[in-house]
Design a protein that fits this description.
Elements: E1 3-7, E2 10-13, E3 16-18, H1 33-48, E4 53-55, H2 64-75, E5 84-89, E6 91-92, E7 103-104, H3 108-122, E8 127-132, H4 141-153, E9 157-163, H5 167-174, E10 181-187, H6 194-200, H7 215-221, E11 225-229, H8 246-262, H9 266-275, E12 282-285, H10 290-297, H11 306-317
Parallel strand pairs: 3-4, 3-12, 4-5, 5-8, 8-9, 9-10, 10-11, 11-12
Antiparallel strand pairs: 1-2, 6-7
C-alpha cells in the first residue's frame, strides 16, 4: 500500500484501521474470547493489506477496545514492530466519578493519566501518536504544552495531533506547544462532505459558514494530515432501495456503476473518492468484517478521474456545483 509521511521518520499507510468496534460492549463486562479471536483476525487482515496505522481512543468501549488489541499484541509480540499506534484522549463520561457531567478535559493531569491507561491496556511502552479527541472549551494551552513535553520527555508519546478541531483551535495550540501537530481527525465522507463543500460554496447566496470553514486548506498549509473518521458514512450508501433518500439512492447507484467499471467494491470507490483529494486525506476504516476491510483496502489501487470525482460529489450534494 502507498504511504504518507505523518511526521519526520514516520511513514504510515494511507488507509488506516479504526479500532473502536473491537469490543462492542460499552460497560464493565470482561473482554470475551470471541472478541479476542475477531480482533486477531482483523489486525492480521489489515496488516496483510499493507495497513500500518491503527487508531484507538481511551474511551472506545470504555477502554476494552484497547484492552482486546493489547491482548492480540501480548499473544503475538512481533506485531508491534509492524504498526503505528495512535490513540486519543480528552472525552470524559458522565458519572465518572459519580455526580459529574459528560465533559472534555485537556488538563495536564487528565492527558497524562489517559496516556498511562492506554499504554497499560495496549501493553506497550509508548504511543506513536496521541490526538486530543474533541475541543475542550476550558482548554489552557500552556497546560496542554506541559503535558506534551512531559509525555515526550518520558518517551511515552512520540508525536501529537488533534481531532475535530477548527483552524483557530489548532492555531491556538500551535502557539504554545513545541511539538508539530501532525494530524487532525475529522468526520469526512462522500455524504458528510461539508469540509470539502465549504470551499466550493464560499461567497454564494444562502450559505452560512460554521467556524470550521477552511479546515482542509488550513491543514494543507501547515502540514497537518487530515484523517477521515466514518469515511463510509456509517454504511448509509450500502442501499440501492428506491425508497431510500433520493440523494442516497442516486449516489449509491453511481457508486455501483463506477465500481463495476473498475472491478472493485462500492466501498473502494467511497474510499478512493477521499484519496483523490489533494489534501492527502487518510481514511480510517472501522469495519469489523474482514472481507469488507479488504474491499476498502483495494481503494489504494483505484484512481478516479476528475469527472468521476465531480460526478460523485454532485450526486452526494444533490445539486450541481455553483
Amino acid at each position: 500500500m502507498k504511504t504518507y509521511l505523518l511526521a519526520d521518520g514516520l511513514p504510515v499507510s494511507r488507509i488506516a484501521y479504526g479500532c473502536m468496534h473491537l469490543s462492542r460492549a460499552w460497560d464493565a463486562t470482561p473482554v470475551t474470547a470471541d472478541e479476542r479471536r475477531q480482533a486477531q483476525c482483523l489486525v492480521e487482515t489489515a496488516l496483510s493489506h499493507g495497513i500500518t496505522l491503527f487508531d484507538h481512543a481511551d474511551i472506545y468501549a470504555r477502554g476494552k477496545s484497547e484492552q482486546v488489541f493489547g491482548d492480540v499484541l501480548r499473544a503475538s509480540p512481533g506485531l508491534r514492530g509492524r504498526m503505528v499506534l495512535q490513540s486519543k484522549c480528552g472525552i470524559r463520561f458522565a458519572e465518572d466519578p459519580a455526580g459529574t457531567p459528560g465533559r472534555y478535559d485537556f488538563s495536564h493531569g487528565h492527558i497524562t493519566a489517559s496516556v498511562e491507561g492506554s499504554l497499560s491496556r495496549l501493553g506497550v511502552d509508548h504511543l506513536d501518536v496521541l490526538l486530543l479527541h474533541r475541543p475542550d472549551a476550558l482548554v489552557e494551552p500552556e497546560e496542554v504544552a506541559r503535558a506534551f513535553d512531559d509525555l515526550q520527555a518520558a518517551g511515552k508519546v512520540r508525536h501529537f495531533g488533534v481531532s475535530n478541531h477548527t483552524p483557530w483551535q489548532i492555531d491556538l495550540l500551535r502557539r504554545h506547544v513545541r511539538q508539530p501537530l501532525v494530524a487532525n481527525q475529522v468526520e469526512l465522507s462522500l455524504l458528510h462532505h461539508h469540509l470539502i463543500d465549504d470551499g466550493v460554496v464560499a461567497n454564494t447566496t444562502g450559505h452560512v459558514h460554521a467556524s470550521a470553514a477552511g479546515t482542509l486548506d488550513h491543514c494543507r498549509l501547515h502540514g497537518v494530515r487530515v484523517q477521515a473518521w466514518s469515511p463510509l458514512a456509517g454504511g448509509r450508501l450500502a442501499t440501492t432501495s428506491a425508497f431510500a433518500d433520493p440523494v442516497i439512492h442516486a449516489t449509491s447507484l453511481l457508486l455501483r456503476r463506477i465500481a463495476e467499471d473498475k472491478g472493485v467494491a462500492p466501498e473502494a470507490i467511497q474510499i478512493a473518492w477521499l484519496l483523490r483529494h489533494p489534501a492527502g486525506i487518510q481514511p480510517i476504516i472501522g469495519t469489523t468484517d474482514p472481507v469488507r476491510l479488504g474491499a476498502c483496502a483495494a481503494a489504494d489501487d483505484v484512481v478516479l478521474t476528475r469527472e468521476e470525482w465531480y460526478a460523485l460529489f454532485t450526486a452526494a450534494r444533490g445539486e450541481q456545483v455553483p
